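quick one, 450 residues, struct below
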Amino acid sequence: MRVDVVRAPERSGRRADLGTVVCAGALVAVAVAVGAYLNRPGSGVTLLAPAAPLFGVWLPHAGPGTVLAVMVAFAVVAWGPSLAGTTAWRPLLAGSYLAALAWTFALALVDGWQRGLAGRLTNPNEYLREVPGIHDIPAMLRGFTARILDFQPDSWTTHVSGHPPGATLVFVWLDRLGLSGGGWAAVVCVLAGCLAVPAVAVTLSALGRADAARATLPFLVLFPGAVWIGASADGLFAGVTAVGIALLAHATLAFRTGRRSAVPAALSGGVVLGFGIFLSYGLVLLGTVALAVAVAGRSVARALPLAVTGALAVTGVFALAGFWWLDGYHLVVERYYQGIAAERPYAYWVWANLACLVIASGPAVIAGVRRAVHVRRWRDPVLLLVAGAALAVVLADLSGLSKAETERIWLPFLVWLVPAVSLLPGRRRVWLAGQAVTALAVNHLVLTYW
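---
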């Protein structure tokens, strides 16, 4: 009788997990169907996303990375959970990072080296188109806002104008180091983007949930969003900001245990996150995740003010160099509606964006988020991180400044939803396989633009 009493809630919970995933799948199906209907000739509606809700075109295909991607997925599903539970911590972090690199590069190479990696960041709308013309970085920063608006002879390209100058500076610095061209840019984006894997795990461990970190690592490796980490600048943004969050989490642990690294870690975390908001305006919303870390680490009054100080220092440096973040933001909103955003219907994208989230996060994360809603320990770091990320997504979605392409734009938020998988009970290999299948299906059925 006792066994039956215990198993009944477990079966009920698993049915609820499956039901939630089915509903999420239905949302994706409806978004695809409505997108196809609105994309038909003569509809009078402009989605500017042929494979809506994803930004890409329907093109079933395979490529050089197909076999490698399947092999990586099989290996992680077969051995990932057991290795995550038994391997020493530092080798586990290193191994997970390398596995994530293999997975991300393999997915990108499904489209081939040129189309999947080297050519991604060289199209006319991307950062690299502006790099050859930037000879004086201080002058570029002083005159950056004057070139944001469109329909001027010297208007920045779409992506340069749509982001603060930090994003462009990354690629200018790469060029100055001799790492010029689309190939190096793509490789660096993947190398930086995959840092989110150990960074999220380190954050969970520093907040006292090493068990959740180990359970989450295989899912971070096979994260479906890796389709867009390789290779887009937003993948780089996700990795950089995840490192900033991890440094803040380490600072909270250092304050609790009296380590000398507390102050440097908090300040450096703030500096990294401060630079993050100069990579993309929307990353200011990661403040919700940073606050969640401070609350979970019981360091709102110690680590958080130091992190804010570090972030303000970065803002001050850019201001002294001639770029004021708020001026740029207001001009970007105007530029946003000078382009395709004025045509894309909010009424479709406000909910279809969430279908993109389902695809990029995967079924395991959706089921885990359902579990997180029922967590009663409000100080549980997993719950707080997931809640912080979910709040950032909701704010971004309702703003109207994220119409389409959110499978890429929201990567810095989505990696913080992944810890929800640690709440899934029992054997997790089936959920892990679902993550891999989702990524493989997307990458082989849709030719993504990013």
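The radius of gyration is 21 Å.
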